[in-house]
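ok so I'm stuck.
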Amino acid sequence: MSTPKSPASKPARHRFPLIIRLFKPSDYRISTWLLLGGTLQCLLLAALPRNIAFLPPILLLAFRALRGYLQATGYLHNPLTDGVNYGRSTSQYPSADGTDAVKPSQDTIVILLLCVSFSHPNGAFSHGSPIIGKYFRQMWRDANAQREKYGYLGNMPPLVVEKDKSETYGPRNGDDQGKTMVFISYWKTLDGLHSFAHSEAHMKGWLWWDRGAGAKYKHIGIGHEVYEAPAGHWENIYHNFRPFGLANAKFPVNTEGEKEGEGKVRWVSGLRPVTGKEWKGMEVRMGRAPGRVELVKAAPL
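replied:
not stuck anymore, here's the structure
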């Protein structure tokens, strides 16, 4: 009986695509990528006749420039506009039947910021990084598969911190160094998030880190922040934007079955249009009186 091959024993032709996927533009500086491109061009010049070696970069650059111009001027379809919601919109808990929200900011939103930082010249291509990346992917797959159990609403694609040497966006104190990725996710309740934190998928990654990986891979850092925003304490607005952040979340709606107890939960978008004065102001989208940012308190009984 043959034994299964380990990833390391796979043929090079199978490992190469994986290596390419592990490289991210943010792992290295632009100058490093330019030097890599220049080196490849030198190799082409050494291996091929000069006139032929010049053709690949020139033709590729010309093709991309022409395609970009035609897309920008409308002669070709611009795929970057796919999914964009033109006009203003806001994401809210939908009504009980799954239709557009009537009451703004009507329930709690829990926000989890999960961060991983690489203080290594090779960024996310450093030792230990593929392992922690594997645990991250398993966690998000588990959250998606068990939305109802955890009250998981959705997340953003990972955000990569941009270097700000000139401190254009404020004092940095070194928090823009290395490579830092931030995962922002949304949950219905703290209880649901707590259940996710103690799930098998999350605990596998945490125990791997806590039982030695954190000390072994000191160039990797992890952290999180949690915020609970009660009803009436959160809002959002998007203008000419594709579903992003909370606008890309899905909210649970109970459907009624033919018999009692046969109902199921379906997940729907909470994105709704903002038209006229309705939903236009920040305070209105938080369920407060127009022109008043303080919380409207209920009258005493």
